[in-house]
What does this fold into?
Amino acid sequence: MNPSRKRTVRLVVALSAAVALASALIYTSFSAASPALTPSQLLRQAEPGRSYQLTGTVVAGSVHREGAVLDFSVADRAGGAAIPLAYTGTVPDPFREGREVIVTVEKQGGRYVGERNSLITKCPSKYKTAPASENQNS
Amino acid sequence: MAGLGFACLVLALVVCVYGIAASLYGVRSGRVEFSESGRRSVYALALVLTAAMAVLEVAFLRNDFAFNTVADTSSRTTPSFYRAAAVWSSQEGSLLLWAWLMSLWSSLALFLTRKRLRDVAAYATAIMLGFGGFFVSLMVFYANPFATTHPAPPEGAGLDPLLRFPTMMIHPPMLYSGYTLCTIPLAFGMGALLARRVDADWIKAIRRFAFAAWLFLGAGILLGARWSYSELGWGGYWGWDAVENASLMPWLTGTAFLHSLMIQEKRGMLKVWNVSLVLATGTLAIMGTFLVRSGILNSIHAFGGQTLGVPFVVLIAVLIAGSIYLVVSRREMLRSEHRLDSLVSRESMFLLNNLVLVGLCFVIFWGTYFPLISEALTGQEASVGPPWFNRYTVPLALILVLLSGIAPVIAWRRATLANFRRNFTAPIVCALLALVALLAAGIPEKPLALTMFCLAAFVLGSVGQEFYRGARARRAMAGEPLALAVLALVRRNRRRYGGYIVHVGIAVLFVGVAASSSFQHASELALSPGQSTRVGAYQIRYVRSTATITPKYDEAHTGSTLSLGALLDVTKNGRHVATLDPSEGFYASGEASQGSVGSLIGGQPVSHVAMDAGFTRDVWTAIQPDIEAPALQRIVKIGNSTLPPADAIVAIVALAHAYVTHPPQAQFHFIVSPLILWIWLGGAIVVGGALIAIWPAPSVVRRRVAVRSRARAVRGLARV
Amino acid sequence: MLALVGLVVLVVGAPLRRARRGDGSRLGASSPSQPAAGVERSSRREHDALQAARAELEAAREAKYREIRDTELDYRTGKLSRDDYQAIDADLRAEALTILDRLERLSSTDA
It folds into this structure.
């Protein structure tokens, strides 16, 4: 096989391998991903056994700890539907009522169970952009 | 003062616009004085932004709460060090930091190339000023760090307690240095394409900048990981969080660039690869900057500020479109001068290395931006978690380590096949010895971790062989003792041996990662004093509870009002190992609605981790005291209703007393991770090796002599 | 603030002022300014192109010397057989010679 043919073969092999790997990657990402839903969406769509990323605000007064389990409710950012869930695992320091959280949940029986150590609390917005309002003087 | 600061920003914007115009005019018309003027605009920009930075720093140090950023992130009780660093904890301040650092590095880069690369530098100047102008415009029109409120509030909100750690304050400047440094090679890369000069001189200049960017970015990433592990309450150092990934991606393409640049230098090959990599690195760095502050992806770091999203998207789109256009329109100029001589050569290893690194970058890119991709494609936003990332990055990382062990053993251009096979004996023996030793020591069967350990042994074997053979060759020529031979060898071949040391560091780092992920023992449980638990090979006993009060206006500490914690006794096989004292600090919130006592401890609590770090393992402990316990809350309620704010501290004393005498059960998190220290150690080795590799060669005079004599030798050969 | 603006103008404008002064002083009393400045500019452009070519060749030469040394190290650490090494080394030295020749030719045209 002359050199240029060898090169073409090499290129084709490399490209095919890359395409194959990329396809595997892309395919599995769709099946392995957990959809991000708000509480109202979750109430509508949740299928038992599938895990979802629940995003919302911690409802005031809903936080109770019983031993290793932390119970709290998550509501839509705009208020409204709230989902109570039982969570075990690390609770991030910023966690408190009124904060925005992301937690992976699964519907088990009639209850929602938070996946262990999946609770993320958004850092309170330090990077707030001051809106260009009247009382800004420079 | 604020007026002065804002005026500096406006002046900076003017300078940027002028500089871009002058540089472009100068390079198109050939009028050097305008290109010169454009270059000096960058110096002027650095000057002006330094002034702006100084104004802001002074405002913070003087507690000038008229400035909104000062009022939002600092307070009278914040210690001076954190006050100075709080400048960049806000969106506006961090933009200023970014622009300022960028102007400094740009000035340095232009100063170093002031006598060369005229055309390229002129275009690069325009691009760098374009970036500078972008960030300054953001500040002038959207997020003004010098915005004020009158009348000034009497006290500021204080620095988020989560940031009151030295490493956390150094993390942004370090990371921003890395990000901003990535834009320099981008600018010079685009400049070279625009000036149609992608040649040896350009390589020499751009390598240094790319190396600096790579070094700072890598250090920033490692510091972030270290901070996450040693200060946050989750005990991990990498979570595949969107923002972590965003900083890793340009580092990966930067690594690929540094390697394949060598190929272009030697053989004039991989030019398209190289310009693409350098443009990708810069673009990914800008995307990383954008990700942190746009809030488009859910992340622990998701700082708000949707208003900044659109300008960034436009910038990134321009960068991508511009890069593609430049590479395609200049492709004739980027043709390879040579072809790959042989698959058994360092060149082909480097090419494979490129592919693996870019592949890694693609995996991480896909996973990070997947929420956006899935939303665009399916209408449903979904995200992938660490298990998915690990599934694809671990095999690629293994291949990477393998390649770094093969490359030292292979020659440039074409290796002699027989020698190549023979040269592998020692490294493979090392790997097999490691495997046998590990299995014999009873390490549980975790195939991936074991593979990593063996590959690391392989790398150590091949690098060790290189050092040994090189020193032996030197001794044969110069007759020095072994130690001196090694030193001389490294000094005279810095790039090669510095690079080998970097690879050793990476191998050590990956060993640490593999061990700490695969063989970790973790436990989360509630304990009362006197109780103990077993974690891995260690017994941890909760000896007693602790409580510390810090007065409201102390300067020395991080300023928590009340710290509740525990004293832990760690033993192994009955032998005392360590005494650890994790605690949680409760900070003042300044919210009157929580009551006089409640507001003293109602702020965001921060976990203070206690750990015993060792060469073979870390014992990591964290506590979450139950501040909500009825007994404690009763004290708070009584205090709220009976004590005025000035006397509220009395209730805090009572709380502390109650916690020490009758502590409720506390939640503990214990982790025993083997070889975590190797991660930081590996990182340090990488930095050391990198510094050796980029250290300028010894005596320039000696080199000139060598050059002249070499020239004679070359000519001599030709005459024969 | 004014001081800062003044400083900026000074720093940024220095090359422009220098160029204008240079053009002016080189003018004879008789010749009009335009063509003389044009000639100045084009010869400066040539000079720059020459500088760029020289810098390029010098960088290429350094890289080539480094390659020669690297190959020798490869041979001495046992990655190349003697025959392979001598073949590659001869190639590299020939390439280095080409660069040196081009550099010499450049210096002679410049002189």
